[in-house]
Design goal:
This protein is mainly beta. The protein has three helices and 20 strands. The strands form two sheets. The protein has a 16-stranded antiparallel β-barrel. Strands 12-13 form a two-stranded antiparallel ribbon. The protein is elongated and about 125 Å long.
Length: 460
């Protein structure tokens, strides 16, 4: 407004000056009238400017100053008006029923199991600083599952510190809520779970390549940290995962992702080797002798892929885990190499898209409305092969199998985004080392494992 007033005054002065230069007689009455018009214009501009200021003040006063509260199937969220700061509460409850068949009558393993019971908290501050805290209430004792904080420098550089999943196994990195089957495959036995460490990750090349690299305390196959790491041995883990056809709309390759995860480190303790490899029914089919301890370099490598095309989803990975062990503190050291693989697929019968992040039903289950949610059928085959050199020095051929091959089929019913009912059938065949007796001394290994696992799941 001041600039416009100044412009009007300047225009009047310029007109007077120009008229004088040209020798044109100046009529004082006309000049006075022009001055009055400028003053009137200035007054009008002042009024308009004040009206604008009043509107701006009213808009600022009307702007929300109270937190925004959101409650939906993704959790309970409290956020600042500008969404720069937020805290979210999320939960997961899974109740399983395990029913085993033809187990010889000598094994008591049919059970209801509270598989997972979690109430987690996630937070965001200034849009760049985040944290995650997830306790696990299922099991015999409460434990801390995830506890970490992050700094989002840019989409290409995300830093994470604390306890979280090691970036190697594809299915291991998938949410516990959205795997094809109730239990991850037996191939997953050969990767570690959650560990203490620091990690850098991000999306580069236009979002077509995701990378992660970190330094961790180091764990045995299938292990999770006990929240301490008092030794000098550490592990480096990294993963590259590409989605090169991400932007190719309409291409059958748009949903193809593939990559490789790997880790390398040194260990020197009994905790460095696996506590045991488990079947789909969560029964131990292989374990080292109690005296066996890790001592030296270990490494893992896992090529992997994920493919989604409409309602179809396919996931596969191959894992090699190498460990150096001693049968006792003074025994001779040996390098063992165990291998596993899996191929799993799912198809959504009701037409919704398959996704690594889960199936979202178009409608919720509602008898009155005649809607049933979404249905998905699944199938999987997986294998674990233990190095024959593990027997008989590092593991007993009489009590452990050296191979397991599992087949599974399942039906997933998504009643809504937060509620699911799943039923799986698994059958696992065991192979044994040449030194094994005709009948294993471990009852569960005397026949194939045949088990139904049903799950009622609530997740938000």
């Amino acid at each position: 407004m001041r600039n416009l007033t100044r412009f009007g005054s300047a225009l009047l002065a310029a007109a007077t000056f120009t008229t004088g230069l040209l020798g044109v007689p100046v009529d004082s009455s006309e000049l006075q009238a022009l001055r009055e018009q400028v003053r009137a214009l200035e007054q009008q501009l002042k009024i308009i400017s004040r009206q604008i200021e009043i509107k701006d003040e009213a808009a600022a006063a009307a702007a929300p100053t109270t937190p925004k509260i959101t409650v939906n199937d993704k959790g309970f969220t409290i956020a600042s008006p500008d969404a720069a700061n937020s805290i979210k509460f999320r939960g997961l409850v899974q109740l399983d029923s395990r029913l085993f068949f033809n187990d010889g009558g000598g094994v008591v393993n049919n059970a209801f199991v509270l598989r997972r019971a979690r109430l987690g908290t996630e937070g965001l501050f200034a849009k760049k600083f985040s944290f995650q805290f997830v306790p696990e209430f299922a099991g015999s004792a409460v434990s801390i599952l995830d506890a970490n904080f992050g700094i989002a420098v840019s989409p290409a550089l995300q830093l994470k510190f604390g306890k979280f999943k090691v970036p190697v196994g594809l299915e291991q990195l998938q949410s516990d809520t959205w795997t094809f089957f109730n239990e991850r495959s037996i191939a997953n036995n050969l990767v570690s779970n959650r560990d203490l460490g620091v990690q850098a990750s991000g999306d580069i090349l236009g979002g077509t390549l995701n990378y992660a690299v970190g330094v961790f305390g180091g764990l045995g196959d299938g292990g999770s940290t006990n929240n301490t790491d008092f030794d000098n041995e550490k592990e480096v883990a990294a993963r590259l995962f590409a989605t090169p056809f991400k932007g190719s709309a309409g291409s059958p390759l748009q949903g193809l992702s593939f990559g490789i995860g790997a880790s390398v480190g040194r260990t020197k303790s009994a905790a460095a080797r696996t506590a045991g490899y488990r079947t789909d029914g969560q029964q131990t089919f292989f374990s080292y002798t109690a005296a066996t301890a890790g001592d030296g370099q270990n490494w893992r490598v896992s090529p992997q892929f994920d493919y989604r095309l409409g309602s179809l989803g396919v996931l596969g990975e191959y894992i090699v885990s190498t460990i150096n062990v001693r049968p006792s503190a003074s025994g001779a050291k040996a390098e063992l190499q165990n291998k596993s693989w899996q191929l799993a697929a799912g198809y959504v019968l009701t037409g919704e898209d398959s996704s690594y992040a889960g199936v979202v039903p178009r409608t919720n289950f509602d008898l009155a409305a005649g809607t049933w949610g979404a249905f998905e059928v699944t199938g999987r085959v997986a294998n674990v092969t233990v190095d024959d050199a593990a027997f008989p020095v590092f593991a007993s051929a009489a009590t452990s199998a050296n191979e397991a091959t599992a087949h599974g089929v399942g039906l997933n019913w998504y009643l809504g985004k937060a509620v699911a009912f799943k039923i799986d059938y698994y059958q696992t065949h065991f192979g044994f080392n040449a030194a094994a007796p005709a009948t294993s001394s471990t009852p569960i290994l005397r026949q194939d494992e045949k088990v139904f696992i049903t799950r009622f799941q609530l997740s938000f």
